[in-house]
Amino acid sequence: MMDGRALRSVADKPGMPAFLPALTLEHCALLVESRASEEHTLNSQCDTIMSALSAFEIPEQVAFTTDSGTVATLWGIRKGMFPAVGAVREAGTTVIIEDVAFPVERLAAGVRELQALFTEFQYNEAIIFGHALEGNLHFVFTQGFESQAEVTRYGKFMDAVAQLVAVKYEGSLKAEHGTGRNMAPYVELEWGADAYQLMQRIKSLFDPKGLLNPGVIINDNPDAHITHLKPMPKADDLVDRCIECGFCEAVCPARTLSLSPRQRIVLYRELSRLEREGSTDKHAELQKAFDYLGVDTCAATGLCAERCPVGINTGDLIKKVRIAKYQRFVPIARWTANHFDTVTTLTRVGCPPTARCNLFSVKKPWAACSIASVNSPRAKHRRGMKASPAPTLTKPLLLKRAEPNRLFTSLPVPVAIWATKSAVKINAH
After folding, report:
1. What is the pLDDT along the chain (429 residues), one digit of tens a residue?
2. How many independent structural domains does the chain possess?
3. 238: in domain
């Protein structure tokens, strides 16, 4: 079941039925799927369904079909609704999805009153979809928590929803999914004081110290759902639409090495928040970790965008960060490119005896330093290192970071820094 607002949210998406844009908020749609092991049984079931609907006015419909393309289009309407709300939300807000259940015979009235609450509390983007046969409804809306006024509005809205579902209609505040912190303050309202006290006693028997999932389901704080709220600060237009659903994580090549795309965005948002608040020490500490975990290890393949319901390519963000991070090395790179003959000549000669080279591991006797001084006409190597030919490498060289002011005092500064960065780069691969 999909209400008029839900249908409108996907009406302009590619591949949707042509009649969707003409529907109003008063319309509602049913997506019905029937299955059977034999064709005649399937046809009989479809006839029964259509007979049950014959008493209702149906302005538009798509006939029952077994065509896979049409089936995919129809399911695409339903699957596109949650990301559609996420895509149009304002930056800095979050997407909230809840699921409740009304008695099936009172489902229509429950939908009407839930829609009225959306209007009363000005959630004009909110949509409803769900499983009509079970009376189960999912409603999706966006909410900001950056001001106390917004937090208060949200708290009053959830109070009204709980009264509507649990008290007036005697339904369920959690139908398909588990009770979390958002509904914990209303468990007693739904089940009654006696049942709630029994739940508390059972909880204390198995978890006397409150270590297991604290605050979830059993929570004595009536404001638990509006306490310790997670911010969704603005960070960058490329990722501000992220709803942190995690659909991207399964296809990320780096997810087992460092971070997933979702985690990169979460850390980037936190860095942006700390920077705005002037938390210099915390920002520096987190930035140091993010440089490797978030930036250096991102493959930037764009696979995340294929799974993201709102089409975010986290790799684009990381590329942007890398450009800013390495911008200060552009003059060095430009100098190197303009003097490449000189650079390659310098790297073919050896170190002078006076050079204290610690670029290559002395554990490898064949690892002779190839960074040279312009004062050395011939390759002379550090004492104790043999100038035998380097074998074909089957693993990375073991390198140490060089100190330009100690190693390359006789080289032009750009070459000195270039040589150091080149060595570190080899180490990274």
Report:
1. 999 999 988 888 887 888 888 988 899 999 999 999 999 999 999 999 999 999 988 999 889 999 998 898 888 888 888 877 877 788 888 889 999 999 999 999 999 999 999 999 999 999 999 999 999 999 999 998 989 999 999 999 999 999 999 999 999 999 888 788 899 999 999 999 999 999 999 999 999 999 998 888 899 899 999 998 887 888 999 999 898 888 899 999 999 999 999 999 999 999 999 999 999 999 999 999 999 999 999 999 999 999 898 889 999 999 999 999 888 888 888 888 898 888 888 877 655 554 444 444 334 433 334 343 334 434 444 444 444 444 333 333 333 343 433 333 333 333 333 333 333 333 333
2. 3
3. no
Instruction: Give the DSSP H or E segment for 109.
Output: helix 107-120
Q: Is residue 137 located within the same domain as residue 209?
A: yes
How far is residue 319's CA from residue 315's CA, in Å, rounded to a whole number?
6
Q: How many CB atoms sit inside 10 A of residue 234's CB?
A: 16
Strand partners, 140: 97, 127
- Same domain (yes/no): 92, 171: yes
CA–centroid distance for 407 within its chain: 45
Residues 145, 31 within the same domain: yes
Same domain, 204 and 71: yes
Nearest-angstrom CA–CA distance, 178 and 175 = 8
The domain boundary residue, chosen from 269, 303, 325: 325
The verdict on 120 and 138 lying in the same domain is: yes
Which CATH number fits the domain that encloses residue 38?
3.30.70.2740
Whether the CB-CB separation of 152 and 138 falls below 8 Å is answered with no
Concatenate the DSSP letters of all residues of 394-409 into one string. Answer: SS---B----HHHH-T
How far is the C-alpha of 423 from the C-alpha of 98, rounded, in Å? 53
Q: How far apart are CA 373 and CA 410, in angstroms?
A: 6
> Looking at the structure, do residues 313 and 342 belong to the same domain, yes or no?
no
Short-list 217, 150, 207, CA closest to 186: 217
The tokens of 351 are what?
């170190």
The CA-CA-CA angle for residues 55, 58, 61, to 5°, reads: 130
Give the separation between CA 381 and CA 370, rounded to whole angstroms.
Answer: 9
For residues 186 and 166, the answer to whether their CB atoms sit within 8 Å is yes
**Consecutive H or E run containing 149:** helix 148-162
Q: Take residue 338 and report the two structure tokens written for it.
A: 């303009």
130 domain residue, yes or no: yes
- Separation between Cα atoms, residue 48 and residue 187, nearest integer Å: 40
> DSSP 3-state assignment of 428?
helix
User: 265: domain range?
Assistant: 249-325
